[in-house]
Amino acid sequence: MSKVFPSIGRRRGVQGAAVAAVVLGLLLWWLLPLGDRPPSGTITFSTGTLRGVYQEYGERLRTAFAKDMPDLKVRLLTSDGSQANVTRVATGKADFTIAAADAVETYELNHGPGAGRLRGVARLYDDYVQLVVARDSGIDSVADLRGKRVAVGPPESGVRLIAERVLKAAGMDPHKDIRSAGDGIDSAPGRLRQGAIDAFFWSGGLPTDGLTQLASKFACRFVPLDDDLVARLHAQGGATRYYRATNMPESAYPSVQNGSTVPTIAVSNVLMTREDVDPRLTEWITRTVIDSRDRIGAHVHSAQLVDLRTAIYTDPLILHEGARRYYRSVKP
Q1: Which tens digits make up the pLDDT trace of 85-136?
Q2: Contact by Cβ (8 Å): 305, 126
């Protein structure tokens, strides 16, 4: 029997396998839209004050981005907080940031430059308003702040925005009825310990490192912010609709709370960008934010609260097209 036919059969088998491999490769390319080369270039991410959750979360996200998009350079910028962050993204000084929903809506209501270009990427976690005093302080309510030295946050922070509204809800003029200071979470705890201020406001995720460190060195407590105060906030109208009454869980700062919850106010945070930012880049960014939740959450507790089921609710911002593509790709 001739030996030619087996040789031809083997050759055709090799050719067939090669064709099948090409077809499989094309099929995978078609089915996996994010399977191509990751985005590259440079982006700027505006975070927040040192010792705040925005700053720590931003640093952890940069590490996650480096893992998924090794050719993407992420430049982090510290800031006063939410108000500064919204302005930076709207005016093109940053590409991505985190900001509280009340600060975003306030910027839009004030018709800030570029407000119409702002877009949402993901709803992240909630900020809790924390009014901190020394344990032996005589301050037991917001009304007791009258005439006191109170840190209300830096001028462009979300803390300043909400602190001034809380003071007004308690019947005070924040510019006349207290001796205000512009300290944030980076300096206010130290000044409280030194007796340079009587109280300070903070609005951030739980727990915040700056407060955890304060609690380990100084006897402090939280002043409750009750439901009546929230109702008076809502009566102010505008962006105050994003404030809701809640309780700070007893596990947030165990050495301070001693097993008790604290009535307070919460507001959601949004990861945001601009309409003109590349949809492909934003799709990758969104995927990494969702996929890195547990890894980042091991270090930043607030990140554990990022949830794919609620991430699409970025009100007051509509979703960026790239984020929309990602959520559609993972929809059951």
Answers
A1: 999 999 999 999 999 999 999 999 999 999 999 999 999 999 999 999 999 9
A2: yes
Q: What is the pLDDT of residue 36?
A: 78
Residue 162 has pLDDT above 60, yes or no: yes
**Rounded-to-integer distance, Cα 36 and Cα 71, Å:** 13
**Identity of the amino acid at 206:** L
pTM of the model: 0.87
Question: Which of 103, 102, 91, 96 has its CA nearest to residue 122?
Answer: 96
Tokens of 153: 């946050």
- Answer yes or no: is pLDDT of 30 > 60: no
| Furthest CA-CA distance within the chain | 109
Answer for the pair 126, 119: CB distance below 8 angstroms, yes or no.
no
Q: The tokens 């949004």 sit on which residue?
A: 270
Q: What angle do CA 281, 282, 287 make, to 5 degrees?
A: 100
Tokens standing for residue 205: 């995720």
